[in-house]
Amino acid sequence: MRDEIDKVIQVIRPAIQADNGDIYLREVDEGTGVVTVELIGACVSCPASTVTLKAGVERILKDRVPGVTQVINLGEQAQEIGETPVSL
Q1: Which residues, other chains included, contact 36 with Cβ-Cβ below 8 Å and sequence gap of 6+?
Q2: What are the pLDDT tens digits along the chain (88 aa)?
Q3: Is residue 86 part of a domain?
Q4: Are 72 and 25 in contact (CB under 8 A)?
Q5: pLDDT of residue 81
Q6: Nearest to 76 by CA among 84, 66, 88
Q7: What's residue 6's pLDDT?
Q8: 27 found inside a domain
Q9: What pLDDT does residue 45 have?
Q10: Whether 13 contacts 56, CB under 8 Å
Q11: Which structural domain range is residue 23 located in?
Q12: CATH of the domain at 19
């Protein structure tokens, strides 16, 4: 499953990079179907990054990889527990 997800992310990546951002696959929970990615660069401060994640990345992964149920951003997880995402 992870390899399939990574292949799809490689297809999506150029569109995100065109807006000075990037996306990296960080974790796949095959039991729950939850995929954790990290949006970096311009995506960190972009107000549309949630839309990119849910309406773009999540929708495409759900369509192309059986078993994917949700895509979450590692940066958003960190903010929920009080950490601040920093991309260098």
Answers
A1: 25, 26, 27, 28, 29, 71, 72, 73, 74, 77
A2: 999 999 999 999 999 999 999 999 999 999 999 999 999 999 888 888 889 899 999 999 999 999 999 999 997 654 444 545 454 4
A3: no
A4: no
A5: 45
A6: 84
A7: 97
A8: yes
A9: 87
A10: no
A11: 2-80
A12: 3.30.300.130
> How many domains does one find in the chain?
1
Q: How far apart are CA 23 and CA 17, in angstroms?
A: 8
- Give me the long-range contacts of 8-14 (CB less than 8 A, separation at least 24): 8/60, 8/61, 8/64, 8/65, 9/37, 9/57, 9/61, 12/56, 12/57, 12/60
In a domain, 88, yes or no: no
For residue 22 the two structure tokens come to: 């990037």
Domain contains 75: yes
pLDDT at residue 78, rounded to an integer: 46
What's the pTM? 0.82
**Residue 15 and residue 82: Cα distance in Å, rounded?**
30
The rounded Cα 41 to chain-centroid distance in angstroms is 13
